[in-house]
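We keep the chain:
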Amino acid sequence: MADFEWYRSFISIYKHSSVSEAARTRMMTQPAMSQHLAYLEAEVGEPLFTRAPRKMIPTERGKALYTQLVPLIEALEVTTQTLKTSAITSLPVLRIGSAHEFFREYIAPYIGTYQMRVVAYLGVAPKLLDWLLEEKVEIIIMSQKLTAPGIEYIPYMQEEFTLVAPPDYVEPTFDDKESFEAWLCSQPWISYDLDLPIIRRFWREHFQRRPQTHPTHVVR
C-alpha cells in the first residue's frame, strides 16, 4: 500500500521538476526524496518521470497521477487546517461531577451562559469521588467529605435537610424528642440506598445517632 508521504513527495517533485529542490522545500534529504519516488513508482508499476540533466520530466502516467492526486491532497490539507483552527477557537471543556439534584437546581439553569463546554457526571458522593480519583472529572461537588489522599476540599455552601411528605399529610405534635424520633421511625421512608445515606446524616444531625428504621422504597 502506498504511503501518503510518497504522494506528497511526488507532487513536490512534479511542481519543482527537481528532486533536490523538492527535498529542500519539504525539508528532507535528497536520498530520502528519491526513495519516496522509487517506492511510488514500484507501487504504480511504471516510471513517473524521465530523468534528464537537471530536470525531471513527467511521463504520461506521471501527468495522469498528478491530475488525480492534486485535488485530493489540497482538500486534505484544507481539512487539516480547518481542524487546527477549530481546535484553537473551540471552548474549553470542564468535566464536573455532582449529585442529580445539585446539577438540576444550580448548574443546569445557567449552563447556557458558561463560556465552556460541560461534561457532567451525576451520582452519589462515593461514586463522584471514584470518578475524580480515576480522572474522569476535574472537579466534583458533593455533600460529604470522604477521606482520600491528594484531594482538596473547599467549602461551597451550607446543606440543609428537609423532611418531605404528601401535601395532605397531617403531622402530629410531640412534647419530647424521643417521641418524635419514634414516630419518624414508624413512617415509610424512601431512600437512595439500603444503607440510608441521606436519612442517616439527617438522624445524626438531629438525634446524634443512627436511625432505627429501614427504607420502604429505594430509588437509585
Q: What stands out?
A: The longest strand covers residues 93-98. Helices lie at 4-16, 19-25, 30-44, 60-89, 100-107, 125-133, 177-185, 197-207. Residues 60-89 form the longest helix (30 residues). DSSP finds eight helices and seven strands in the chain.
